[in-house]
Amino acid sequence: MVQPLAFSLNRAQPEALVDQIVREVERALQRQTLHAGMRMPSIRALAKAHGISTFTVVEAYDRLVARGTLIARRGAGFFVAGAAEGRDTRTAHPGGTLAMGPAAAEVTNAWLLSEIFADDSIAVKSGCGWLPDSWLDEDGLHGALRSLSKGPGAHLAHYGHPHGYGPLRQWLTRRLGELSIDAPPEQIVLTQGATQALDLIVRTLLKPGDTVLVEAPAYCNLLAVLRLAGLNVIGIARTEAGLDLAALEQAAQMHRPRALFVNPALQNPLGTSLTPASAHRILQCAEQHDFWIVEDDIYRELAPAGTPSLAAMDGLSRVIYVSSFSKTISPSVRVGYLACSREMAHEIARSKMVAGLTSSEINERIVHAILTEGRHRKHIERLSDRLTRSRARLISQLQSHGVTLLAQPEGGMFVCGSLPDTAQPARELAEAALLESIMLAPGEFFLAHTEPCHWFRFNVAYSDDARLFRFLEKAAAGKWAA
């Protein structure tokens, strides 16, 4: 039976609505008006009952799941956790790596949002984070699958190496060498996408309560991974040239962080890249204050030549390099990788085996076949040209409909733009847009500490639609509810 949750919210008090919901749910548990196993109201039902945005409920449920108060069951909803389900599911193994239980590993803010947005009936997916199938290397996938199926003695049924498929790691050694990153195969670990690489780094290097620095704004899935790991997350403003270096220095002195997570090339969501001077200063700060740098570099193939790499400048001494093939070949193959020192690679491979055993060698063989077939570079050139044309067209359309750019992107998939301060907050507008079958990504999703804002991240491949621009024009004029 669904629990009605009888409580009231006070918009006049300074406490955020999310905090009020979390407090009231936990009080109901203490008063035993909520019991283990009870099903909670759906996100939409609770939002409607209290006249609030579904995004507010998503964030509250996300926090309650992370605390162990609720559990999420795919396709069934949210339930009050039992004693065993509610306790911290992370356990240490002898190497010092944190292994995270299945509930914590599955439930992220991005997953909760997918329950609302991952709907084929949505007409305009301007806020999504992927490219259309037709933009990716589908021909390469088909060819690789045919080649793999016909290969003699392929031995496809075994688990594979803990570090991943050897020939692909050897190819990556050569590719990273082109970027001036010296990473022999034993210093490379293949993963199920870049997100798993980030998660394994968190499990290996960090413990609950550690402080980490992220960009503001930052990749939203990264923020979810860090929150679920119980880390103290501090945002450092991302400027046109890179990080706000004065703020970085101040945060390093005040908080003594264990790690900094940064996108050097075509940062998600802004689309800007670090300058060489900014990259050099970041490395100096890390050395002075003794913290790791995790370089999330998944857009490198789409970036202009000469865009600086922290790993190339550091030599993988203090930098852990992360990338993947999701944005250029296909997200369906789930093949990413990380490169780091030999000792760290060994520890991360142990974490990978504890968390989920080996990654898929079949998928890694598919990617290797595509990369060595000889047409991948041409595919990247075509994709980059297509993104350039679509980005220019989108920027022109956004500006003509009352949207101001947060930054001038240097390439890639995304453009960030803001409506006037007189418009409704971005989360409320995203709610209204969804009713018109338009998916938007409000800026709050990319901030470590959510606060009302007026900007969105737009995907250049999904935003060339008159319905989107009509909605934005109406929103900019303050007439979105008309």
TrEMBL record:
Name recorded for this polypeptide: GntR family transcriptional regulator
Q: What are the residue boundaries of the HTH gntR-type domain, all occurrences included?
A: 15-83
One Pfam family assigned to this protein is Aminotran_1_2
Query: Can you tell me which family this protein belongs to?
Result: In the C-terminal section; belongs to the class-I pyridoxal-phosphate-dependent aminotransferase family.
Entry superkingdom: Bacteria
By its UniProt entry, which Gene3D superfamilies does this protein fall under?
Answer: Type I PLP-dependent aspartate aminotransferase-like (Major domain) (3.40.640.10), Winged helix-like DNA-binding domain superfamily/Winged helix DNA-binding domain (1.10.10.10)
Entry keyword set: DNA-binding, Pyridoxal phosphate, Transcription, Transcription regulation
| Keyword Transcription regulation tagged | yes
